[in-house]
Hints:
The protein has about 170 residues and is an all-alpha fold. Helix content is about 80%, strand content about 0%.
Amino acid sequence: MKISTKMKKTLNDQVALEASASNNYLAMASWCEVTGYQGAANYFYAQSDEERTHLLKVVHYLNALGAVATIPAIKSPASSYKSLEGIIKTALKNEQTVTAAIHKMVEIAQKEKDHSTYAFLEWFVNEQVQEETKFETILQKFDLLGRDKLGINEIDKFLAVEASASPEPAV
Ligand code: FEO
């Protein structure tokens, strides 16, 4: 099966976007770990792994079609962050960017009548709804529980529970 050059390029761009997300979440996890937010650290380590499974899905898809995935260089992530709330806001923004990129790919697949890629992307469309909701829910906690030390500690505990509930990433 063949995909267009344009479709191949956008899928490869998506590999880079997912790789960058994985790297950013790894940096966030590391910062949380040294700052004492153990629950958030676990949460972001798991999130980083999850992003890697997303990029692998695209790599496998491209390779299965004989289109050959391009493994990208990744830009250095931030090494320091201002606050846990700031991290969650950045994560939500990142997910919104990924959602927009996926929707754009869906539009290209539709336009090109590339039914295979269209079907492949359906999983990502649904996944992004969950990804954005996850971070919106965490952000809401800052209003509900507060931004003082006790509030942040409760949010960290919430993230610890979420991290332990998240399934092992499967590729
Ligand atoms: Fe791979 Fe969080 O989107």
